[in-house]
Design goal:
The structure holds two protein chains of two kinds. In chain A, about 45% of the residues lie in helices and about 20% in strands. By secondary structure, chain A is of the alpha+beta class. In chain A, helix 15 (about 400-480) packs antiparallel against helix 16 (about 485-515). By secondary structure, chain B is α/β, with parallel strands linked by helices. In chain B, helix 2 (about 40-50) packs parallel to helix 3. In chain B, helix 1 links the parallel strand 1 (about 5-15) and strand 2 (about 35-40). Classes of the chains: A alpha+beta, B alpha/beta. The interface of A and B includes residues 460, 461, 464 and 476 of A.
């Protein structure tokens, strides 16, 4: 195989022989492929013809030859153009060819088409560049390289942002500079690196320190980098600042705790009827959950720009004692009321847009947050303001404000429930009153019906007698009978007595009517009570005798005082008539004496007696202690008597037991009150 | 006084009101009828047990000590007295039903008409019946 064949088979190399002047002397097959010219086209031509499309002065080509002549060799790499103008990446070496004696024979130009290689090299470079830019441009992650000893070898923008160091500042430093002093001293960085070496990768979460000394919560992944042979080349470390996510998690956690506390307070409010206790608990919960020293529920006072602190934590007792607090002494309570939503005041001293909140400043409050407590019912005027106040500067979050509002809402709900319950209770009380009134009215109607029945009986009794007497008289007259004088007088006087009885009955009914109107007049005069009692007893002696009751009278010579003679006769007559009626067949004792400035009259019978239940009732209108059909009577006697006695400034009492008789005791002051008109006792009368 | 009192015609008047007892007695007296009076049921029973045999008993209902109902019960329990007719004296509107319930022979409503009194009494005090 000749040398030329070898040369021609090298198709990737253009091998061209040039003479001393640079003219093409020989042309290989490879040259034809690389340059695009045939041997015929370029044989004997100046070699610059090969580069006619490169835009380079042919003279400079010759300079290349001169360099090759001088130094033996010229090498060039760069873009060249073929005959057809297509570009290729060429590596050209021009070698000076000399004879054995050293004289220049010509030049050998070997050109290689490296376009393909060049392309892949470019691609690699570009991809490396892209990756570098990518890593550098990542802001959220610190991505950096460590050498096998743990020293920082590369540093991206994210690392600069997150850690605060520039690349220049940190390169070459050990990565422990990024850890807390405690972590660094405990050897945590080295431990992480050795774990990365062993396991290829290690993940860690914890506090890291920035250049300025501040801390951040970091999540980091360290990967060991090894060569193909497995030799440790260093570490890649990716760090993410988790502070925000961590604080978000913490905020979420605290929101859950707050919501649980609000729910718990709601349950407490449901089980507690005392709204003040709910308010107290609400202020405790709010101050605990929001970690503030002071907390308050301020109730807006009706028709004034003042508040009263209904519940509070951290306030001195004089503020909590219920004294009105002017709206001027608070900060933005008014604004909270107007806006409806929570108001946050970060810096109270700077917050003087309406007025100076002296009360709050006096107590060293710096920050506060206020929520409106809506009023129960339809009222558009709020109940008041729920506030939390801090002596240190606080930035309350929206979540804190929402929590405060939810606590304020629990208080509002408790207020609404209490108001509703009060309404129900009031309605129940009204219904109860109504029932009692109805019962009273029914009772009154029953008593009145009975009274009417009894009154008609009582009125008919004298009427019956009177009518019989008048009819017999009329009959006698019609028969032409003549009555002798004593008989006529006897009959007529009896008839007149019936009219007296009727008159007295009517008078008593009138008394009742006057009592109802509070107008039963008494007319007192100097009188002897002994005489009065005797005058009352005398007409009843015969009746008592007939009933088989002996009248036992015991009294001093005289008891002088200011009395309404006729009215007291009425009282004694009534008591005695009752004693005869209910104590028939047994003796009746009437006793009169004095005790201090009072005269005491006792009427004692040994009849059927009065049960304990009936003792008070007998003094009421239309009442009697026994079934009406057994005993007649209007049931008014004791009722009228009691009022007459009370009009004298006295009192009447009864001691009795069923089957053992009754003793009525009347106490009358010796000097009756000046008033001659019975005091109105409408209430008692109506309840009778 | 033209009328002669017939002692065989005897009426027992039971009423707690003295004026009524007297007025009835006097009216009967004017008609020639004799009467005895009692102020309540208990006194009336005693009167009957003491041998008084009236043709008829005029009985008020509302009385103390012993009322008309109780008297009537005890009277009917006593075979010696059970057959004496009773006329109820009452001011109540339901006089008829009261009389019926008590097994009374009749009733007189207060105020009493003199003619009715005489007519009623004469039914029981005919000269030949007592």
């Amino acid at each position: 195989m000749s040398f030329e064949v070898l040369i021609d088979s090298l198709r990737d190399y253009a091998i061209v022989m040039l003479d001393l002047h640079g003219r093409i002397a020989s042309w290989s097959a490879g040259a034809e492929r690389v340059h695009g010219f045939t041997a015929e086209e370029v044989g004997g031509a100046d070699f610059s013809v090969l580069h006619q499309h490169d835009g380079i002065d042919p003279k400079r080509r010759h300079e290349e030859l001169q360099i090759a002549e001088k130094t033996g060799r010229f090498e060039y790499e760069g873009w060249r153009h073929r005959k057809d103008g297509a570009r290729y990446w060429a590596n050209t070496i021009i070698t000076a060819m000399r004879s054995r004696d050293g004289s220049l024979l010509g030049f050998a130009q070997i050109t290689r088409d490296l376009t393909e290689r060049r392309k892949s090299e470019d691609e690699l470079r570009q991809s490396e560049e892209r990756l570098r830019l990518l890593i550098e441009s990542i802001h959220d992650y610190a991505i950096f390289m460590l050498d096998p000893d743990g020293r920082v070898a590369s540093w991206n923008k994210g690392a600069e942002r997150i850690n605060g160091y520039s690349a220049a500042e940190i390169k070459g430093s050990h990565m422990s500079a990024l850890y807390t002093r405690g972590d660094a001293q405990s050897g945590k960085p080295e431990r992480l690196l050795s774990e990365a070496i062993q396991g290829g990768r290690v993940e860690d979460e914890g506090w890291r320190v920035r250049k300025d000394g501040s801390r951040f919560w970091a999540n980091s992944v360290i990967s060991a980098l090894r060569s193909e042979s497995g030799e440790l080349r260093g570490f890649a470390k990716v760090v993410r600042d988790m502070t925000e996510r961590r604080s978000a998690e913490q905020a979420l956690q605290s929101r859950i705790v707050q919501q649980a506390a609000a729910a718990e307070l709601g349950l407490y409010a449901l089980h507690t009827r005392d709204v003040n206790a709910v308010m107290m608990e609400a202020t405790k919960v709010a101050s605990r959950m929001l970690a503030v020293e002071l907390c308050s529920i301020l109730e807006l006072q009706p028709q004034s720009a003042t508040f009263v602190m209904r519940a509070g934590v951290g306030w001195p007792s004089e503020v909590l004692s219920g004294v009105p607090i002017s709206i001027d002494r608070l900060s933005d309570a008014e604004r909270a009321l107007c806006s409806g939503g929570p108001v946050i005041v970060q810096n109270l001293a700077a917050e003087s847009r309406t007025h100076s909140p002296t009360l709050l400043l006096e107590h060293g409050i710096v920050s506060e947050m206020l929520a409106t407590v809506v009023a129960p019912g339809e009222s558009t005027r709020p109940f008041g303001v729920f506030g939390v106040h801090s002596r240190t500067h606080r930035s309350f979050s929206r979540a804190d404000a929402a929590f405060l509002q939810s606590i304020a809402n629990v208080v509002a709900a408790a207020l609404a429930r209490t108001a509703a319950e009060d309404q129900i209770r009031a309605a129940e009380a009204r219904a109860e009153e109504e029932r009692a009134r109805l019962k009273q009215a029914q009772e009154g109607l029953r008593a009145r019906d009975e009274f009417l029945s009894v009154a008609s009986h009582e009125l008919r009794t004298p009427l019956t007698a009177l009518q019989l007497q008048l009819q017999t008289l009329a009959q006698s007259l019609s028969r032409g009978e003549t009555w002798d004088e004593p008989r006529a007088t006897n009959r007529l006087s009896k008839a007149i007595r019936q009219t007296d009885r009727l008159g007295a009955l009517v008078e008593r009914l009138l008394d009742v009517s006057r009592l109802g109107g509070g107008m039963l007049p008494i007319h007192t005069e100097q009188a002897d009570l002994c005489e009065i009692v005797k005058d009352a007893i005398e007409p009843l002696r015969a009746q008592a005798e007939q009933a088989g009751s002996e009248l036992v009278l015991q009294m001093p010579e005289s008891i002088a005082g200011q009395w309404d003679r006729m009215r007291l006769i009425q009282v004694v007559t009534n008591l005695l008539a009752n004693a005869i009626k209910y104590g028939a067949g047994k003796p009746i004792e009437v006793t009169l004496d004095t005790s201090g400035a009072r005269a005491l009259l006792r009427v004692r019978d040994h009849g059927i007696g009065i049960s304990e239940h009936d003792r008070e009732r007998v003094f009421q209108r239309f009442e009697r202690a026994v079934p009406v059909h057994n005993y007649g009577g209007l049931g008014l006697g004791l009722y009228i008597s009691r009022h007459l006695i009370e009009a004298h400034g006295g009192s009447i009492d009864v001691r009795s037991a069923p089957g053992e008789g009754s003793e009525f005791t009347v106490a009358l002051p010796l000097e009756a009150p000046v008033s001659t008109v019975l005091p109105t006792q409408l209430g008692q009368v109506q309840s009778a | 006084m033209n009328t002669k009192i017939d002692p065989s015609k005897l009426v027992l008047v039971v009423d707690d009101d003295q004026d009524i007892r007297e007025a009835i007695s006097e009216a009967l007296e004017d008609d020639g009828v004799s009467s005895k009076t009692a102020c309540d049921g208990k006194a009336a029973l005693e009167c009957l047990k003491n041998g008084t045999k009236p043709c008829v008993i005029l009985l008020d209902m509302m009385m103390p000590v012993m009322d008309g109902w109780r008297f009537r019960e005890l009277q009917r329990d006593d075979p010696a007295l059970a057959n004496i007719p009773v006329i109820v004296l009452t001011a109540h509107a339901d006089a008829a039903s009261t009389a019926e319930r008590m097994g009374a022979a009749g009733y007189l409503k207060k105020p009493i008409r003199l003619g009715e009194l005489y007519e009623t009494v004469s039914r029981f005090c005919a000269s030949d019946t007592c």
